[in-house]
Design goal:
By secondary structure, this protein is of the alpha+beta class. Among the domains are: about 230 residues, Transferase(Phosphotransferase), domain 1, CATH 1.10.510.10; about 70 residues, Trypsin Inhibitor V, Chain A; about 60 residues, 2-Layer Sandwich (Trypsin Inhibitor V, Chain A), CATH 3.30.10.20; about 60 residues, 2-Layer Sandwich (Trypsin Inhibitor V, Chain A); about 60 residues, 2-Layer Sandwich (Trypsin Inhibitor V, Chain A), CATH 3.30.10.20. A six-stranded antiparallel β-sheet has the order 1-2-3-4-6-5. Helix 4 packs antiparallel against helix 10, helix 7 runs antiparallel to helix 9 and helix 9 packs antiparallel against helix 10. The protein starts with 13 loop residues before the first strand and ends with a strand.
């Protein structure tokens, strides 16, 4: 962390007779942070001094004390510890663990967008610490890069627990508490916050780490707050092409507007985070983000409807954070966003086959003609040409007959002959007229036959003067036994001697379902595509034996004959069910082992025992892991206490009380002084106990005259 030097009146002063302020680290809307030396324990600490307008509120100070005590009970390697809290002449302060190093904000300012491997590695301990806080009933409310501290030795800790909740419960309902760039929608709307509000802020922070910019921007803080409530956080891959889809899903899961659609707490997020880190390939983890674009002010934007003002950060203002306290604001970094155009896909072609919409030229029943040498032509014209040819032959035969014989015949006989010829010609003409006008050669219109039974269709065709044949076909839409279509199609005009073919439905064509159980989800999808089936709903469930992503069941079952395009529902394994690790620290060894085994885990006793002031002999001092999740049968290592260490108590009778007190406290004892006659001489007259071994941390009573 970079120190800021100024003429601060508190630098060099002693707070509460104990904390010597060395220098100022940072200043925010609620407090100023100093590096101070704890003169009692001779160590450096971070001293957070509240601004006077907050330190002057007795109700707030009482609430702050309760929250500080709750935060002090949280002991986790990735959470900045709260060591002390108090007041000194209207200076209200918190004492916290001092982490020498820098913040995540410094990393982002230096590197910009981070590769997924580095981003996930940096946020993992933050989420682990947050999960421990959620287990303890604490909500942070102000997750942001400025509150992620990175020590010079590589330790990563989440700071500022306790203060945000105390502030939020003491301010008016019209104020936003937190940094507006990371505020959850429910905090913007003044609703009750819970662990899911912290999850939202972590999602925004992860988005910024991956892309190098925050998802929402605006000219004033209220515009950013408005977008948290009314807009969805985009996928990071819009700014980082090639980013793994799992990271997109995780960010958008964390930043859902509806809290019910987010992960429930830090431990749930930690489980998903580590699952993704384990399953991404090296290429996906080491993806190099594109070079960060320059930060430019955005064009003027219309102001959203008036809502609550922005939040109140309590650390040094950094780029990308907008801080608002009672209407006061500081600068905001504006970040542009990309877009993702929508592609419109064309519909799939209809399955070929018989149907009411089949075109005549595509029909599987071509017309037949007796005169093979003739080109295809409509039936009425073809019959007319045959009639014309017959007439021409008759004329040619008549032309070849001599008009006069060499010998004159009987005129009467010739007249009868001509009468016979005329009668025959009339009969032929009448027959042709009947054939083409009323007989089998007359034209007729094909009736509508679709969706009728075969008997009904044939009766309609006979009544219209047509003869018919049938052919069975598969059809997904027409019930079995009904006519799908006719050829020629309904409404066409043909000669009645031409045959009409009826396509009769056999119902949908059925195909057996492939066996999908035991396959991976991707393999099952490929099998369904190959079989022409559709993917239905996917349900996930825990399974102790099947790896995550394995298909456990399908509906309908394999082998069942179904039509093409039938949706198949799949049940997919999420792997073994994660089991929360119970916290058994402080419990007696036997009870702790039973609690761990009852949870489905295995208790392992460490061969080394340790001294501990607070945990009695035989109790559990520590466990590994102390929190998080394991799968069934996972091991939890327990370290057992040997009880408090026994320390010799030397005699300080006759010595000055200050000397005695310091020596006893250095030995780890608590000292109680009782004065006789006001303790005028300051000399120890009696001591209890003395010259014996007692447990470390025991109270030594000194009687002073």
């Amino acid at each position: 962390m970079v120190q800021e030097y100024s003429s601060d009146p508190l630098v060099g002063t002693l707070v509460d007779g104990r904390y010597l302020i060395q220098s100022r680290l940072a200043s925010g809307g609620m407090s100023t942070v100093y590096v101070a030396t704890d003169r009692r324990l001779e160590r450096d600490v971070a001293l957070k001094v509240l601004h006077p307008h907050m330190a002057g509120d007795p109700q707030f100070l009482d609430r702050l004390g309760r929250e500080a005590k709750a935060a002090a009970r949280l002991s986790h390697p990735h959470v900045v510890g709260v060591l002390d809290q108090g007041e000194d002449d209207r200076v209200a302060y918190l004492v916290m663990e001092y982490i020498k190093g820098h913040t995540l904000r410094d990393v982002l300012k230096d590197k910009g967008a981070l590769p997924p491997r580095l981003a996930l590695a940096l946020i993992d301990p933050v989420v682990e610490g947050l999960g421990a806080a959620h287990d303890a009933g604490l909500i942070h409310r102000d997750i942001k890069p400025e509150n992620v501290l990175i020590a010079d030795d590589g330790r990563i800790k989440l700071g500022d627990f306790g203060l945000a909740r105390a502030i939020s419960t003491s301010t008016s309902t019209g104020a936003l508490i937190g940094t507006v760039a990371y505020l959850s929608p429910e905090l913007v709307l003044g609703k009750q916050a819970d662990a899911r509000s912290d999850i939202y802020s972590v999602g925004i922070m992860l988005y910024e780490m991956i892309t190098g910019r925050q998802p929402f921007d605006g000219e004033v803080p209220i515009q950013v707050a408005y977008q948290h409530v009314n807009s969805a956080v985009g996928a990071p891959s819009e700014l980082v092409p090639g980013l793994a889809g799992e990271i997109d899903e995780l960010v958008q899961w964390c930043t859902a507007n509806d809290p019910d659609k987010r992960l429930v707490d830090g431990n749930a997020l930690l489980s998903e985070l580590r699952h993704i880190r384990r399953n991404l390939s090296d290429d996906e983890l080491d993806l190099q983000p594109p070079a960060a674009r320059p930060v430019l002010p955005p064009p003027p934007a219309p102001a959203p409807p008036a809502r609550r003002p922005g939040g109140t950060p309590e650390s040094r203002p950094e780029a990308g954070a907008t801080e608002v306290i009672g209407g006061r604001q500081q600068a905001t970094e504006f970040i542009a966003r990309g877009s993702n155009p929508t592609t419109v896909m064309s519909a799939a072609p209809r399955h070929p086959g018989y149907g009411p919409l089949s075109a005549p030229e595509e029909a599987p029943y071509p017309a037949r003609y007796d005169d093979a040498e003739e080109p295809a032509a409509p039936a009425s014209k073809r019959a007319q040409r045959k009639y014309d040819r017959d007439e021409e032959k008759a004329r040619q035969r008549a032309a070849a007959t001599p008009v006069r014989s060499l010998r004159e015949g009987n005129p009467r006989r010739r007249g009868l002959l001509w009468i016979l010829v005329l009668v025959i010609a009339a009969l032929l003409a009448g027959g042709a007229g009947w054939f083409f006008g009323m007989g089998p050669g007359s034209p007729g219109t094909i009736p509508e036959l679709a969706n009728k039974t075969v008997a009904e269709a044939q009766q309609l065709l006979r009544a219209a003067g047509f003869q018919s044949t049938t052919k069975d076909v598969f059809d997904d839409d027409v019930a079995a036994g009904l006519v799908v279509a006719s050829e020629p199609a309904a409404g066409e005009v043909i000669r009645k001697f031409q045959p009409v073919s009826l396509a009769v439905s056999k119902g949908p064509e059925l195909f057996p379902l492939p066996e999908l159980t035991g396959k991976s989800l991707d393999e099952a999808k490929n099998s369904l595509n190959g079989a022409g089936m559709a993917l239905g709903n996917i349900a996930e469930t825990y399974d102790e034996t099947a790896p995550a992503g394995t298909v456990l069941a399908q509906a309908p079952r394999s082998g069942n004959p179904v039509r093409h395009g039938t949706p198949v529902d799949l049940t997919v394994s999420k792997g073994p069910q994660p089991i929360p690790v119970p916290d058994v620290r402080g419990q007696e060894q036997g009870a702790a082992v039973k609690a761990i085994e009852a949870a489905g885990l295995k208790a392992v006793i460490s061969p080394e025992t340790v001294f501990d002031r607070k945990v009695a002999k035989g109790g559990v001092v520590a466990q590994d892991p102390a929190s998080g999740n394991l799968t069934r049968g996972g091991a939890v290592t327990l370290t057992i206490s040997k009880g408090p260490r026994l320390v010799d108590v030397p005699s300080f009778v006759g010595k000055q009380v200050d000397e005695a007190r310091k020596a006893l406290e250095d030995l780890g004892f608590e000292v109680q002084v009782e004065e006789i006659l006001g303790g005028f001489f300051g000399t120890v007259r009696y001591q209890d106990p003395v010259n014996k071994q007692v447990p470390e941390g025991s109270v030594i009573t000194l009687t002073v005259v």
